[in-house]
Specification:
Layout lengths: L1 H20 L3 H13 L1 H4 L2 H17 L3 H13 L5 H17 L3 H14 L7 H13 L3 H14 L3 H18 L4 H13 L1
Helix pairs in contact: 1-2, 1-4, 2-4, 4-5, 4-6, 5-6, 6-7, 6-8, 7-8, 8-9, 9-10, 10-11
Amino acid sequence: PDTLCRYYALTEQNLGKHHLANHDYSKAVATFARYRNHPNCCSDSALIGFADFFLGKARMMKNEFSAADSLFHSVFANPHADAEIKDMSLFHLAKIYHVQGDNVTALSFLEAHQRTLPGGANQSADDYLKGDILFDACSYDSAFIYYRRSLAYSTSLSTRCLIYNRLAKLAPTYEPDSLASYIDHNAALVGT
């Protein structure tokens, strides 16, 4: 019976991930909440860390930032939580604080996350978020640098489109000869 209960709990976790991947955030929240309240999860601090992380991610995607903030802080405070989800919690906290307009705190969480990355790791998402934070703080020259760095490693078409859009806005000041190229790349990606 214990093995069956554990598999049921893990099925809830996987179903929640499925809902999250399919952008069905209400179902993801409900499923991760059931997983979080499952007796097997409640008795295992490491599983609580995973549950809080994914529940926080689903709440963040639903723009329930206060609840997500609390959940990500819980993950980070959990001594038995997986190191990778602790690190990703820092990244998500940076995103939450950025969306809420607290760029100083967002930058602090982002820099803490970047210190956890191994050397040579793809930092495209970090660089893009840092570019956005700096753009919103009117540090356009620094934002331009981070957008360029992000572009070098980004593989997501939608992210590349967003990066080219930002670079096109900044290019007239920082790289006028590349403006047409950024616009063309953005248009090509929008068309795919």
